Amino acid sequence: MAKRYDKEFKVYAVKLVVEDGRKAAEVARELDLVPQTLQKWVTKYKEDKDDSFVGSGNRSAKNQAEYEKDKRIRDLEEEVAILKKAMGIFAKNPR
Asked: Based on the domain organization, do 36 and 67 belong to the same domain?
């Protein structure tokens, strides 16, 4: 099973490479990490410092806003479909 690391540990490891200027292989060896894993963390950190390492099942602020927008669109489309069906039912049965 894959080993899991918390956000604080990842940020600590990445900062040793990015801010202290140490080699990723050296830091990985010290922290008992696979060098490729640390390199992926560094790349992700450089792309989006604030939203890097949000955790499993969580979304970054940007992705959360997009998800909520898409959900709102789906909900509105469902409402429209229901109203269209209701119009069809009431149009066929005049009182």
From this structure: no
